[in-house]
Design goal:
Rossmann fold, globular, alpha/beta, 12 strands, 6-stranded parallel beta sheet
């Protein structure tokens, strides 16, 4: 661990969120903190998988992995990390609203520990902010608000668009390693959604869109985790053989850092409301966001280079993992043609 910095530098420890998209959106907070105090240093406690995302944020000095499973309490691990971090920070900002998320800064004895009221965190936090859903109607606003002072806490928090650094040398290495064309334009598809199937545009729709894209001269990269590999194979299987040569299943074949660089190479991305959608927005890749059970009002892609497709049916957004009405009309009725047309319009605006 680094030595304690001089007293005229504010060292801030942020406890980051557990989801890819949320970690990307948290960069808005980091930008706001740097705007307030350009000399501050920001370290972020995060799941180990998200450290490559933090390494692409110039505002963050380092990501500190917390080696506990998702949802795991593991008091000993949190105590040991907190003890290790003592005497290094003047302020902590805790983005998750759980009790366990606030423990490391408490054990680190950080003087100011800021977070929203939740899960009986009195004493664990000593700068408790009211959680006003109406005022803080977007995830990114909730994050950024915690970086404000108490006197400005009720003002509309600024939203700074995330911007991940693209490593051009690593990008070329990834293209060569995966034998991807460096000259044929690429569009990436993100058919997965960790939250559940009520966020997933139908496979057959992705296949029809992929077919249209290959006919239009694009190579199509289907990206996601290893869990999405079967979905990607199913998409490719539904496309005519003479077109599928331009479809490439990259699910599970890239590191997160490689995925960031490859997305930054793409002409555009088409995505469910997922973490990779936010990565694409932050990688300056034009993105089409498809929303079903969730709402673009709550977690929009944070970029001017985006178009959102959301039918706003009477039954949506329901925010359920699976469709409670068992028809998934909110996604099925978004046609491949409407997505293709939106994509072409978005590309023409570049």
């Amino acid at each position: 661990m680094p030595n304690k910095h001089s007293s005229n530098t504010e060292n801030i420890l942020v406890v980051g969120p557990s989801w890819v998209g949320d970690m990307v959106m948290a960069q808005s907070l980091f930008k706001a903190l740097k705007q307030q105090n350009p000399t501050c240093t920001i370290d972020v406690i995060a799941p180990g998988w998200s450290v490559p995302v933090l390494e692409r944020m110039p505002e963050v000095r380092r990501g500190i992995p917390l080696h506990v499973g998702h949802g795991e309490f593991n008091l000993n691990a949190r105590y040991c990390l907190g003890k290790e971090l003592r005497n290094q920070y003047q302020r902590a900002i805790i983005l998750p609203r759980s009790l366990k998320a606030a423990l490391v800064p408490f054990f680190a004895k950080i003087p100011v520990r800021t977070g929203f009221l939740g899960e009986m965190r009195y004493g664990i936090l000593n700068d408790i902010r009211e959680f006003n859903k109406k005022h803080l109607n977007q995830t990114v606003k909730r994050f950024t608000a915690l970086g404000s002072t108490q006197s400005t806490a009720q003002q509309t928090p600024p939203v700074h668009f995330p911007a991940l650094r693209i490593d051009k040398d690593a990008q070329l290495q990834a293209l060569n390693k995966l034998q991807l064309s460096t000259t044929q334009p690429a569009v990436s598809l993100f058919p997965g959604a960790e939250y559940g199937p009520a966020k997933q545009w139908p496979i057959e729709h992705y296949a029809e869109l992929a077919s249209a894209l290959t006919q239009d001269g694009y190579q199509v990269w289907i990206m996601g985790s290893q869990k999405d590999a079967t979905v990607a194979d199913n998409i490719i299987d539904q496309v005519k053989t003479d077109q599928s040569i331009s479809l490439i299943n990259l699910c599970g074949k890239t590191s997160l850092a490689e995925a960031i660089d490859l997305i930054g190479h793409c002409k555009a991305a088409v995505s469910n409301d997922s973490g990779l959608m936010h990565v694409a927005a932050a990688a300056n890749c034009p993105v089409i966001g498809i929303y079903g059970s969730s709402s673009p009002d709550f977690t929009p892609p944070l970029t001017e280079k985006s178009k959102v497709l959301h039918l706003n049916l009477d039954c949506s957004p329901c925010f359920e993992r699976t469709c409670p009405l068992q028809h998934l009309d909110c996604l099925y009725k978004i046609t491949p043609k409407s997505v293709f047309d939106a994509l072409k319009m978005l590309l023409s605006e570049k």
